[in-house]
Amino acid sequence: MNPIREHQLLLTRRQLFGKAATGIGAAALASLLNPALAAAAGAGGASGPLPPHFAPKAKRVIYLFMSGAPSQLDLFEHKPKMKDMHGQDLPDSVRMGQRITGMTSGQARLQLLGSPFKFNQHGRNGVWLSELLPHTASIVDEITLIKSVHTEAINHDPAITFITTGSQQPGRPSLGAWLSYGLGSENSDLPAFIVFISVGSGNPNDQPLFDRLWASGFLPSCHQGVKFRGSGDRVLYLSDPPGVTRQSRRSMLDAVAKLNRITLDTFQDPEVNTRIQQYEMAYRMQASVPTLTDFADEPESTFDLYGPESRKPGTFANNCLMARRLAERGVRFIQLFHRGWDQHGNLRNGIAAQCRDTDQPSAALVKDLKQRGMLDDTLVIWGGEFGRTVYCQGNPDDPNSGRDHHGRNFCVWLAGGGIKPGMVFGSTDEFCYNITENPVHIHDFNATVLHCLGLDHERLTFPYQGRDFRLTDVAGKVVRDVLI
Known about the structure:
Mean pLDDT: 92
Radius of gyration: 24 Å
CATH class of the largest domain: Alpha Beta
CATH architecture of the largest domain: 3-Layer(aba) Sandwich
Strand content: 15-25%
CATH topology of the largest domain: Alkaline Phosphatase, subunit A
Number of strands: 17
Structural class: alpha/beta
Helix content: 25-40%
Distance between the termini: 38 Å
């Protein structure tokens, strides 16, 4: 029980109106002096957003989520010994009986697969990167590469659910929803949390993504992510039907709001208030989204930077450019899911195609933010839900072979927003199977993201079903070594 909350619920109507009246003038003055702060308060629900627990380094997050799990062995982990041991069995002393998925547990042998790609050193600190990432190599001095992220989940849906919500079981709020709840939005005409999905060239039939990955869980539903589509109406049900004018839409919303307020007064259900807010947000988005998606004001140099697909809606490159435009407009959390990284087979061609989709736009986003003076207060994240095995799925000499799931270690890079530039953190053994230094659990990673935005992961909580829930559950520690 929260005694303060219980006392608030016992206020009489007369006390409520009396207290509310004293704040009207202050609220009006605040909206004139600081419109962004007023917008954030409006986006936070009935109680408004929480103030940051300490001074934040980042104001917003752009999360480039590589759905399907990129192979760290073919992108970031230079393990030359694996080429020498190509085709040999993974030693039992390395695996130590750790569980593996049903997709390779039935194989007679777990044969090592050396990466078919060349690695070179880049940047001031000589960071090893695959030849598949030439554009990422150009920003290596801006990023911190964490090689020791790990998770207990070894299948896609629980793993993606875990890293985005802090639990392998569905139903918890996503990271973006927690940030919307905690900090609100800086733009009253756009949601605080926006999601994009693109389909990669490496595996167009990769596993689907469920809307609950950007849901609000038990938080008020105004904090859930709003999905922007790649074709047709960018946001479903946002356009008015033929014959409906702006004035008639306004009149309809006013009438519906009156009915909803009657319901709110009767049942005191906070979701009714959320419904009113969301109707109003949709009305404002009818004016803001067309301007957002009109790239006529972008110079040719911008499209050259993001690559040839940046003009095509629905592509990863186009979504990266959209993310920068949303960041300029104060959207708190922008998440780009790019499917197609699940290379159980056809690894050589599949991962190369995925990198052609993502390498240039990802690097362009960091460069674009930096040249606009926005990288210092924008946290950019690139990574998937787990890594891939050093042993082969199939025959290692077959060009159509691939790699299985591996949760023991994988790589994520971060840039801007309070992150040290040009750093590699954590390391793995010579087989890239076990972590040897500075392990970073999923809860540690999410705690660090919240810290960059001025939020203490142990204090950002929400009461539900008799306990206070948080994104990091009962674990997590901030990885301070990667912070400025």
